[in-house]
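Collaborator request, handled under Task 6.
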Amino acid sequence: MTNIRKSLLQFIFSGSSMRRWNDKLRPVELYEIDKQAHKMITAFLLYRLQCRNLSKEESLKLGEELIEGCLFDYFYRLVTTDIKPPVFYRIRENKEHFEQLTDWVLSELEPIVRPAGEVFWNKLVAYHHNAYQQEEESLAQRILNAAHLFASKWEFNLIRPLNYFDEELRDIDSSFTEQLQAMKDIEGVDQLLASAGNPLVRIANLCGQLRFQIRWSQTSRIPETSVLGHMFVVAAYSYFTSLDLGLCKARCVNNFFTGLFHDLPELLTRDIINPVKKSVDYLSHIIHQYENDELERRILVPLRSAGYEDIVSRLSYYLGIEQDSEFGETIYDEHENIHIVSSFDELHTKYNRDACDGKDGSLVKACDTLAAFLEVYSSIHHGVASPYLYEAMARIRNQCKTINFGDFNLRTLVADFD
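Structure tokens returned to the collaborator:
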């Protein structure tokens, strides 16, 4: 029986409705879920660069700290959504006031997050209780902070031309730059501060554009989730499901990042719904081949040419380039060769150890389906429905009937939404 509950799934998804820069004139709506995805994509790029000087165990530990730190901060942010950053920073300067705020946030989070597992909950509590006492930030926290600043500055650059009359703009702009400049000792930050021609900046910018691609674009929905935000939701669902099933640390980390990047090719082809892909023989294959070709030309080749072969290798593993599918079970052998595993059960019984560096593609695919269900359910629940959305809900419910991973049963989880 899974420990994941409807309340947690909806809470993670709620960032899709949380507007950012709400007191500024915006060319498009900017949402917290999109910013979190952009932040973690940027953090991944910095993370892989740090791994060059770390052992496999140290790299894995850093990856886990990045993911959990992101989720801890995101949950805190969801609860304190109405507090503007300048006000929050003032509260943080006063230890007593900040601890009171944190205690209240944790009391709000406990009934939502704690049922998912005591280990994760205890880490979350310790993370926020230690936030004020730490004399020095960990490497993971500094990477997350740098990625946060980059993603926020990216959004700021969108709204700046429209807010020329706003007196705050100059201070905000200089603050972003000064804080990033102070982190140049982290490998990769100086590249992020470089021109858009730098391959790392280019891929971060390209990924940021996925916030402009709206899913289910042929029908009205509330909220209108983007491809970028959807990727983060799938990543978070994949991580919690992995923890729930007792997967090794490597599989948990890999499943998160596989979810985070699984729709990256849609940057090049746009979001094409399954009924269209399957409407003509071989259309799905043609689209997939085009996605791979464009991914190679526009993202992987520039990174490889600039000496980022390690990032290319990891992205290729998450996207299943060699296996022609990101949704398959794979491991690395002792010679660093990738092998396909026949099923989740085989991967879990034979290779559930960090040394195998496993990836649960079918589990990520199930979480992709679950995220799509939340998108449809939330819109219908908000009173914005159409025959197409009802049809999609029925189709997804039917798909969920046969999706099982050990004690994790998607049919039971979806039934909570009746």
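The cover message to the collaborator said: "Residues 380 and 389 are 8 Å apart (CA to CA). The chain has two domains: 6-209, 227-415. Please let us know whether this matches your experimental observations."
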